[in-house]
Write a structure and sequence with these properties.
This protein is α+β, with helices and mostly antiparallel strands. The chain has a single domain, classed as q2cbj1_9rhob like domain (Jelly Rolls, Sandwich), CATH 2.60.120.620. Helices cover 18% and strands 25% of the residues. It contains six helices and 15 strands. An eight-stranded mixed β-sheet has the order 2-3-13-8-15-6-5-4. A five-stranded mixed β-sheet has the order 1-12-9-14-7, with no helix packed on it. The longest helix is centred in the first third of the chain and has 17 residues. It is globular and about 55 Å long. It starts with a strand and ends in a 22-residue tail after the last strand.
Length: 291
């Protein structure tokens, strides 16, 4: 498989040139350097660590893993769409069920409604700049459906297998777009992402849905991902990577001494239908609102 470098672009106000829009339509991603100031990255990282410090791991010990999928059967995960909840790395606990390292170095991610429930995350997520970007990408009525703070911890940060975001955030027609912010430098050593440029044209292969009060993956096409060129998305702090909802992407485990903190938002078009069998649901007390 051939490895390519990303095309590095810049947008100071969220607006995209015709050439940048054409690049997104052709490749399924945009690599926008210096989209977020370093100080903003630091503030969000500090707030995430405050939330972790306030969290008592004795209350819940749900592990998030894209390889084992053990979290899919946990009520704590199933009902997290309109809450702030904490999920551990697979390697966080020893055989006795005790944390093997400090709590702040054991969390895999926080999800999935910080953008609505925490003032610091809300301020970062709901900006005119992001709204302009979503509109420039053709999202008529952008709404944030999900937020995730991803730690990619040193030595135990888990692999995220090849997937597309529309599997988990499905609309009719498909409208999901991911905004992935590098809050620290993302390198190949600490688990930077990879993507398959142009593969967003492939029909959706699966959906993650609710069936009889259980979360299951409904396979639509079990053929393998294409073997074409892939792009390594090594991203300096402050970079925003925009991912088409059907673009396959992946990140390997973090075996380095350095974390790879990132914040991800997923936007859908409010003019599209969001089926009731989607895994992520929100109660009536926290309806979706415009970006």
């Amino acid at each position: 498989m051939i490895d390519l470098a990303p095309r590095r672009l810049r947008s100071d106000d969220g607006h995209l040139s015709a050439d940048m829009r054409a690049s997104f339509e052709a490749d399924g991603y945009l690599f926008l350097e210096n989209f977020v100031a370093a100080a903003e990255c630091d503030r969000l990282r500090a707030r995430a660590l405050e939330l972790v410090e306030e969290f008592d791991p004795a209350e819940h010990r749900t592990i998030f893993s894209t390889t084992s999928r053990a979290h899919a059967s946990a009520e704590y995960f199933e009902t997290s769409g309109d809450k702030i909840r904490f999920f551990f790395e697979e390697g966080a606990f020893d055989a006795r069920g005790e944390l093997q390292q400090p709590k702040a170095l054991s969390i895999n991610k926080i999800g999935h409604a910080m953008h609505d429930l925490d003032p610091a995350f809300e301020a970062f997520s709901h900006t005119a700049k992001l709204r302009a970007l979503a509109k420039n990408l053709g999202v008529r009525a952008p709404q944030i459906i999900q937020s995730m703070y991803i730690f990619k911890q040193p030595h135990i940060g888990g692999e995220v297998v090849w997937h597309v975001d529309s599997t988990y955030l499905y609309t009719e027609p498909l409208s999901c777009i991911g905004f992935w912010f590098a809050l620290e430098d993302a390198t190949m050593e600490n688990g930077a992402m990879w993507c398959l440029p142009g593969a967003h044209r492939i029909p959706l292969k699966s959906r993650f849905v609710r069936r009889n009060d259980t979360l299951v993956t409904e396979v639509l096409d079990d053929s393998p991902w294409p073997e074409g060129p892939r792009v390594g998305l090594e991203a300096p702090k402050g970079t925003l990577i925009v991912l088409h909802g059907q673009l396959p992407h992946y990140s390997g485990p973090n075996t380095s001494d350095r974390s790879r903190h990132a914040y991800a938002l997923h936007v859908i078009d409010g003019e599209c239908r969001y089926p009731a069998d989607n895994w992520l649901v929100r109660g009536s007390r926290l309806p979706l609102r415009p970006l």
